[in-house]
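Fold this sequence, please.
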Amino acid sequence: MTDGRQKRSYDPEGTRRRLLDVAAEAFQSRGYQGTGMHELMREAGVTGGALYHHFPTKKALGLAVIRDRVAGEVEETWIEPVRTAPDAIDGIAGVFGRIAAGLRRRGAVSGCPLNNLALELSLADPEFRAAMDAVFAAWRAALAARLRADQAAGRLALADADDLAAFIVAAYSGAMAQAKAQQDAAPLEACARQLMRYLEGLRTGA
């Protein structure tokens, strides 16, 4: 039974998620420096009080986007698919293939969110740099762990797994930067072909 009056919904966690989603999209399309807090308020449909309750400063919002959204995207796009693939090489090939196909469908390349923010903010603030370095480190560590597991199972030749993981992340990040500049998936596809040719050479056939 209600008194007929419409009750205002109060969902602070939903508001926070909406702000992070809108900010992540804006930082990806316009850059951190090119995005204003008033724009984010309007696009998220929230008041200034709601925005500043969750994120007292733009920097606080930026750090939350890196830790909550960018890290999550790396986990979903890269870490989990490689972890659950039949082996690391198949997982890496699948990631490159899915991302390149997505770029072809969209006909536009906005770049890797982590790489975009790293290029824009790494020299601007030590907290931003540390937050992004932590995401890169987790990405490399997950790849290295899967490579070591394949080596232990006899599926992959012995090599320095940490160095190999750094090479894979660097190859992808650099190829995405070129794809963004060219607005074409071709650099990513070319990088994938050469990287996979090298990685396939490490298979032991076990």
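The CA atoms of residues 9 and 54 lie 17 Å apart. The two ends are 67 Å apart (CA to CA).
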